[in-house]
Design brief:
The chain contains two helices and no strands. By secondary structure, the chain is mainly α. The longest helix is centred in the N-terminal third of the chain and has 31 residues. It starts with a helix and ends with a helix.
Length: 62
Amino acid sequence: MGQSRKRQQQRLVKQAGDLGQELVQVIEELARRGVDSQVLLHFAIGLILEILRAIEEESNES
């Protein structure tokens, strides 16, 4: 059972990393298009919170 939990955690960490990379790409593209830095900051924080909620929910389901 411990191995299954460890594999799930590794998968969640990888997913979070992948989502983080996508987030960086989206923010970079929005910045290139001239979106205000305050808007980008709020956007990034909101997305990070959503990612954390999703990870927590998935973790709690197991």
